[in-house]
Amino acid sequence: MRNILLVISGPSGVGKGTLARLLLAEDKGLVGSVSCTTRAPRAGEKDGREYFFITPQEFRDRIAANDFLEYDEHFGNLYGTPRSFVERRLKKASVLLEIDVVGGLNAKRLMPKSAVLVMVAPPSMEELGRRLAGRGSEGKEAFAERMRRVRYELDQAPLYDYTVVNDDLQRAKREIQEIIRKEKEKTI
Question: 3-state SS string over 134-158?
């Protein structure tokens, strides 16, 4: 059996983080990745566990050295998946990355034989809108921008290997577990 780079993407509020945590807890042959960021650690976060916290200059140096599978800027901070870290982990286990669609597609481009892309989709736009609005964490303008981003991300689903609708958390988890099993058995 081969190890795979399982990339899980999907819009905010779709449950991809919950699915990732369940998959990692239940599959001992699956490990998470740790991203780099230039933002400061939040209370309770530990370097090397939630993120590798690095300076903007270190981040730029790693970009120049082609050591990111993907990277992006969010709210003034840089985030990226260190390629060398993922490659080391893939030698021992399958690796799960929970990243946005642009990063997922870039990971597939850089590691086409290992990367398996799974888009987690909501049961409907209305349901996702209710989930996001229920958070009550943003104003109307920010909410509208988030919904535009959701549409963009879901429009990228045809570029992914699989789409899993998260209308039932346990069913969606089992579907992804079956994808993992099937992909690990493939010969490349």
Answer: HHCCCCHHHHHHHHHHHHHHHHCHH
Ranges of the chain with pLDDT below 70: 131-138, 143
Q: Provide CB contacts within 8 A for 24, sequence distance 6+.
A: 30, 31, 32, 96
CA–CA gap between residue 72 and residue 46 (Å, rounded) = 21
Of the candidates 80, 109, 77, 101, the residue with the CA atom closest to the CA atom of residue 16: 101
Q: What is the CA radius of gyration of the chain?
A: 17
- pLDDT for position 12: 82
Q: Can you tell me the distance from the alpha carbon of 105 to that of 101, in angstroms, rounded to the nearest whole number?
A: 6
What is the amino acid identity at position 153?
E
The pLDDT of residue 152 is 87
Determine contact, residues 119/7, Cβ cutoff 8 Å: no
Q: Cβ distance 100 to 117 under 8 Å?
A: no
CA dihedral 161, 112, 54, 34 (to 10 degrees): 50
Q: What is the CATH T-level fold of the domain 5-185, as seen in this structure?
A: Rossmann fold (3.40.50)
